[in-house]
Each structure stands twice: as structure tokens, then as C-alpha cells.
Predict the 3D structure of the following.
Amino acid sequence: MGLAVLGLSLPDGPGARPTLGQALLVGNGICSLIALTLLLTVRRWPPLKRFDLTLLLLAQAATLGGVLGETFLFGTQYSIMTQLWVTVFAAGFLPRRLVWTQQGLGLASITLMVWLRAQYGAAPPRLWGVDALVTALPVVLTGVAVAYFRGEAEREARALEVAGRTDPLTGLGNRRALFETFGAQQSGAQRLTGLVMLDLDHFKGVNDRYGHAGGDRVIRVLADVLREHAAPQDLLTRHGGEEFVWVTGISDAQALLGRVDALRMSFAHRVEVLGVTVSAGVAVTSLPLDDPASVLPELLRRADAALYQAKAAGRNQARLAS
């Protein structure tokens, strides 16, 4: 936009085609204003992100118009490095598919701009190819570098997000994952209507006798047994300490209770020498799941109460919540 103001204030430049140069600079200002308006609108209204390509083309047109306007009006191209701004913006903020689109557009634009400067400006025509290479190289390399560091930052952010929702000992989800994933999975073909809360019996004795390393091994065994007995779409989490939560699509209470008993026997067989067993509380909901955020706490409360009953009745058993 600054170039547009310059073109209007200095209409009689020493370039080869000052009138055309002035018109191009005005076009630069118009494209810049439209691009800026679209950018601010996109930030405020996410559905407009589908106009990313339009925004990129407007920015490229503004840059091309500004540089060529300077060329025709003054015979110079000091503003050619504004191409770098468009490249950095695309590499840093636009979808990755548009990064390489911008690299191609940038190379084509720089080649055209430098060639026209050789024809209508002060640059020697014979050296325009070398001039284009010297100008394009830092722009392209900067775009590649920005895209690379952006990719690394995004990968690290995704890794941190996964780590924040995963129990490091078992690889299962954690308490946060339980609450975040439960609602999302209700929109699938099979809704999760049953919840099992499991707790290791006599676990303190394992820690006292074999140390925390032994206790960790027992916890990992239970996690493995859970994976074997759960369906692929079920949600498994370590709720904390030696307590686990299994959320499943099994809506028949007795069928789910039978699955839990099979799980308990499988686990007991694997750790028989340690004398560790599992108690469980089972809760099934028949309520509509239009509001999963309210259903999950109720399922947890009922399953926890049933687990308490199983513990009070002598452990190593599963109880169905009333």
C-alpha cells in the first residue's frame, strides 16, 4: 500500500512507462487492502479458511503489481524482496498444500519481475538470468526453512498433546483422555453405554514385597489383559494408581458382567504367584446419550459404588451397580 501512495504522489517517474507503473502501483494498493480485509475476516470467522488460496493469490498479485509498478515508473526494483513476505506468510500460516504452490508462484513471479527489469529498467539484459537466480535463492530457501521449522513445531505440539492424554506406564489413556474421548465416541456407529471400574486387590503388598518395579509390572499386565478383552472401539484408561476404567458398547448388564469375570480370571492366572486379584464395579446406562458430559460422571459414580461393594464383600469379584 505504501508503494501505491508513492505511485500517486510521484506520477512522473523516470521509468520507461510511468503511466502503466502508476496504474500497477494503484492495483498493488487495492489488492493489498482486499488481502488485508480477507485476512482479518478469516481470523474472526474460521469458516472462511477455504479462501486461503484466494488470499495467497491476492498477496502475490499485490507483490507483483507493486514491483512491476516500481519498475515501469522508476526503472528500479528495490521492492522485489517483498516477495519474501508472501513466501514466509504462506510457509508459516497457510495449509501445507499451499506452501509449495506459493514456492512455484514465487519463482515464476521473480523470474518475470527480473526479466521485465532487464527490459525496462537499469539492469543489464544479458545478466537477467543470474539476477533472477540470486534473487530467488534466498526467498525459496527462507520459505523452505520456515516450512520445516513450522512442521517440527507442529509435530512437537502433537506429541505433547498425545503425551498429555496418555498414561506413560501402560500406554492407555489417562483421566483427561476419558472425559475428552467419551463424548466424541458417542457420535460413532456404536455408542458406549457400559462402564467398568477395576481396582487391584492387595496391591500394596506387591509394592512392599517386590518394590515399585514389581508393582509396575502388575499394572502393565492388567493393561494388557484389558486390551485383550476389550473391543477395538472401547475406551480404556488408567484412572489413577491401580484403578482402571473400561468403557464399552455392551449394553446388556449380565453380558458385560460375564466379560468382566472372564477378564478377572485371565488376569489372576497370569499373576497367580503374586496373590493379586481384581475387583470391579459395573454400570450400564439406558439413558439417552444426547448429553454425554452428564452421563459419564453418573456412570463413574455408580461403578465406583459397585466397586466399593465388591471390595467390602471380600474382593476378587465384580458387582453390578443398581
Remarks:
- Residues 42 and 48 are 5 Å apart (CA to CA).
- The chain is about 65% helix and 10% strand.
- The first strand starts at residue 194 and ends at 201.
- The beta strands are 194-201, 235-240, 243-248, 277-284, 318-320.
